[in-house]
Design goal:
Blueprint (H helix, E strand, L loop, with lengths): L3 H11 L7 H21 L3 H14 E5 L11 H12 L7 E2 L7 H16 L3 H21 L11 H18 L3 H11 L18 H22 L14 H5 L21 E2 L7 H17 L6 E8 L1 H6 L8 H6 L1 H10 L10 H5 L1 H9 L1 E4 L9 E7 L4 E6 L12 H11 L5 H12 L17
Parallel strand pairs: 4-5
Antiparallel strand pairs: 2-3, 4-6, 6-7
Helix pairs in contact: 1-6, 1-8, 2-4, 2-5, 2-17, 3-4, 4-5, 4-9, 5-6, 5-7, 5-9, 6-7, 7-8, 7-9, 8-9, 11-14, 14-16
């Protein structure tokens, strides 16, 4: 009897670029470029630099870039570790709608980029690897019904290793048999706990979850290629992924619609440097402020009807660091009332220390609601000091599949995040990534300009 890992591996290794519809490839190219930009921006943070330093300590001598971080090239596992940590460094990377505990940019791009730079594979192979990895990654996430986080796991750290293994495995040219075995090994490297969201410190570890997933993907793919295989029942079998990491797993979703329903079209891009559950409320608040002409000083009360998970996981009223602040829906709403959240630089220590933001954060009322259209939806109510009251449905946000960010806005975001490279170099890099399948190799990321 064929297992899910075997069927997914057959699909991934049998996929050809000409089989993929153009809208799917367009979405994939945009996500790859976005991930590179997030890594370049994210590389500037201390936690990313610490992981990059570790990568250079143990990996120097390889042929792979650490994006946005000057220094020697490294071997593929260390590049994947550092780059994935940087992509996920500041809550700006892509995900899936509906939510499934997956981050395609952070889980796939560092692994396939490292594998391409290690082997000299071309851009067409990189694009193919991304789509193959995304189709597998999203199905595994969907099969959990996003219940892993109810158990205290950080879901992208669990799912990411499977996507990274497929992306790297396609670049390395694994057979279906070896890729299925690599997925079996990858399952024992799934990891990530949500302890950071409830602790007094240590939130940098959240970024490491994606780094470890990509590093493990490289390791699992190479081991699988050598004949080192894990169990083919890793996903749906006894003590496998769905049984151990999910509360309500559905094995049928692991392979449903392969090659016919393109999960890659579900990729969602963020506008703000914060958790996805804050995206729609923040967008709704800023739209109300622009439409009605009020500012923070005019607001008396603010309430948000939201998914129960927001109340259980994202109601952090006194965040201890920037990462906890980005994970907190009331803090993000408070910040958006006082600052322009479209600039990721406003999520900083000064915002944490701002007494006005802190006071607003404490005063926002969160009300769990079960009648919302999606887990990311909300209803926002704002009451002004002059008695006026406004209500707005926050059903979606720009960047979701039904309201995608257009090419010009994607390019503007890329150039903004890649300011450290200088405008000419950033513009040239974006052009190469936008025409990825015509590139003879995965594009090299220029060294940042001296600050």
């Amino acid at each position: 009897m064929t297992t899910a890992a075997q069927e997914l591996a057959r699909f991934a290794t049998g996929l050809r670029l000409e089989d993929i519809p153009e809208p799917v490839k367009e979405r994939a190219r945009a996500c790859i470029a976005d991930a590179v930009a997030c890594a370049v921006y994210g590389a500037g943070f201390a936690w990313s630099q610490q992981v990059a330093d570790l990568g250079r300590r143990y990996g120097t001598g390889g042929s792979c870039d650490i994006f946005g971080s000057p220094g020697a090239t490294v071997h593929a596992p260390q590049a994947a570790l550092a780059n994935a940590s940087a992509v996920h460094a500041f809550e700006q990377d892509s995900l899936r709608f509906p939510g499934a505990g997956v981050h395609p940019g952070a889980a796939l791009v560092p692994a396939l980029a490292a594998a391409c730079q290690e082997t000299g594979a071309d851009g067409a192979t990189a694009l193919l690897a991304f789509v193959a990895g995304c189709e597998v990654l999203f199905r595994i996430g969907a099969a959990t019904h996003h219940t892993s986080e109810k158990l205290g796991f950080h879901a992208p750290g669990l799912t990411g290793v499977y996507g990274a293994t497929v992306a790297a495995g396609v670049v390395y040219g694994l057979s279906a048999h070896d890729l299925a075995g690599a997925l079996g090994a990858a399952g024992s490297m799934s990891a990530g706990l949500l302890a950071f969201s409830k602790a007094d410190g240590g939130a940098a570890v959240k970024r490491l979850h994606m780094g470890r997933a990509c590093e493990a993907g490289i390791v699992a793919a190479r081991l699988g290629q050598s004949g080192f295989h894990g169990p083919s029942t890793i996903l749906e079998g006894r003590f496998g992924f769905l049984e151990v990491y999910a509360r309500e797993g559905d094995a049928a979703l692991l392979t449903q619609g392969l090659g016919a329903q393109w999960e890659t079209l579900r990729i969602c891009m963020k506008r703000y440097a914060c958790h996805v559950t804050a995206q729609a409320p923040v967008q709704a608040l800023r739209a109300l402020m622009a439409q009605e002409g009020f500012s923070a000083a005019d607001v008396r009360e603010m309430a948000l009807d939201c998914a129960p998970k927001v109340c259980s996981h994202h109601d952090i009223r006194a965040p201890k660091d920037v990462m906890q602040a980005q994970y907190s829906v009331p803090f993000c709403l408070a910040l958006a009332l006082h600052r322009d959240p479209s600039d990721p630089r406003v999520f900083d220590d000064a915002a944490l220390a701002d007494p006005a933001i802190a006071q607003t954060c404490q005063a926002i009322v969160l009300r769990p609601a079960t009648d919302l259209p999606t887990a990311w939806s909300a209803r926002l109510e704002v009451t002004l000091r002059d008695g006026r009251r406004f209500a707005r449905e926050a059903g979606a946000f720009r960047g979701m599949p039904q309201d995608p960010i257009g090419p010009e806005d994607e390019r503007a975001r890329f150039l903004s995040l890649c300011q450290s490279l200088g405008r000419p170099a950033a513009d040239a890099l974006h052009q190469r990534l936008s025409a990825l399948e015509s590139q003879p190799a995965f594009p090299r990321v220029p060294t940042p300009l001296a600050s």
